[in-house]
């Protein structure tokens, strides 16, 4: 690459990629190509099943849809751009092409990566508000406000991405500050939720006098939703920290620039891997989404009966000619029939 080549604030990055990362470009090309199909298919499935199933269209799942949308954008837009950068770097077609593609890819990566991380932060705050506000939650956290919040997350990510072409040093500072602020917010929410849940658990034990706590399905469901976010949070920590660490590394000489850019490149690959792992985590932790995806892709037969339906059948009283009318009109029989109808409807959805 010519010494007088200029690519704005990304000149050092492009020159470094051409000089030191040329041998790794084919590997990066293959890695990016392997990440696209699972990330695109899985996130598209999550969006489709939430859109098709009314029971999944909750206020909290709006954050999940926003997260899946940003991950889908990474798969169908950012990763192909990075594949183009690697291909151009291998073929040495044009310095100007790799510069233009690198600028678009870097800005796009920041936008979608920021939306993903900020959405996870907002979802954690949402779970804290559900516990803190209790009965007032549905009145305060409305669907319209959540939609406006998601739009605000996209606007913040777009505005901060403008810093990247202006000053790379300022951009790194903003990234570190955003990451630190989000981490502090998440840790604060988890701490407060732990304190509140611990208090409620103690009160429940006293009031129920030794009865099993499992008798409170709403609290168990809430704990499950919090644990889902904990797993996502831990996944983000593992995958985002290398890139943040690379942003914090000094770049005063060529050796330091080389080490920092290698760390940031590895961090970027891990961040994009997150777009594939997120929907897998949803399917593992959320039974409703997992079953909906199985029905959508045809993993479960359309005509089948659940174990609950079979148990309901076994509880039917025998129908005889003398007491057929009494048997069919008994409350237990009607309840059993209603249970089977509901289970069959769920299976057919």
TrEMBL record:
It is a multi-pass membrane protein. PROSITE patterns: G_PROTEIN_RECEP_F1_2. Keywords: Cell membrane, Membrane, Transmembrane, Transmembrane helix. One of its GO terms (cellular component) is plasma membrane. Residues 42-282 form the G-protein coupled receptors family 1 profile domain. GO terms for molecular function: G protein-coupled receptor activity. InterPro entries: GPCR_Rhodpsn, GPCR_Rhodpsn_7TM. This is Melanocyte-stimulating hormone receptor-like.
């Amino acid at each position: 690459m010519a010494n007088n080549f200029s690519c704005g604030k990304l000149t050092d990055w492009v020159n470094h990629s051409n000089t030191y990362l040329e041998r790794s470009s084919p590997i990066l090309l293959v890695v990016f190509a392997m990440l696209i199909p699972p990330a695109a298919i899985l996130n598209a499935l999550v969006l489709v099943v939430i859109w098709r199933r009314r029971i999944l269209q909750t206020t909290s799942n709006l954050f999940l849809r926003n997260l899946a949308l940003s991950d889908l954008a990474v798969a169908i837009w950012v990763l192909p751009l990075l594949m183009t950068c690697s291909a151009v770097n291998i073929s040495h077609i044009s310095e100007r092409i790799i510069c233009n593609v690198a600028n678009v890819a870097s800005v796009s990566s920041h936008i979608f990566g920021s939306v993903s991380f900020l959405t996870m932060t907002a979802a954690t705050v949402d779970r804290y508000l559900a516990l803190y506000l209790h009965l007032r939650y549905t009145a305060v956290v409305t669907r319209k406000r959540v939609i406006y919040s998601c739009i605000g997350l996209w606007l913040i990510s777009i505005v901060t991405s403008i810093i990247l072409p202006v000053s790379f040093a300022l951009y790194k500072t903003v990234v570190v500050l955003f990451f630190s602020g989000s981490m502090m917010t998440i840790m604060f929410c988890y701490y407060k939720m732990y304190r509140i849940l611990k208090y409620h658990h103690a009160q429940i034990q006293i009031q129920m006098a030794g009865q099993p706590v499992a008798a409170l399905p709403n609290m168990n469901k809430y704990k499950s939703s919090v644990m889902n976010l904990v797993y996502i949070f831990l996944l983000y920590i593992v995958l985002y920290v290398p890139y943040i660490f690379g942003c914090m590394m000094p770049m005063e000489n060529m050796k330091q620039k080389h080490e920092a850019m290698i760390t940031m490149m590895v961090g970027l690959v891990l961040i994009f891997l997150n777009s594939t792992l997120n929907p897998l985590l949803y399917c593992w932790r959320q039974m409703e989404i997992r079953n909906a995806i199985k029905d959508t892709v045809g993993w479960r037969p359309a005509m089948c009966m659940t174990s609950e339906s079979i148990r309901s059948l076994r509880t039917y009283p025998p129908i005889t000619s003398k007491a057929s009318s009494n048997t069919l009109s008994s409350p237990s029989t009607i309840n059993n029939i209603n249970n089977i109808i509901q289970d069959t409807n769920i299976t057919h959805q």
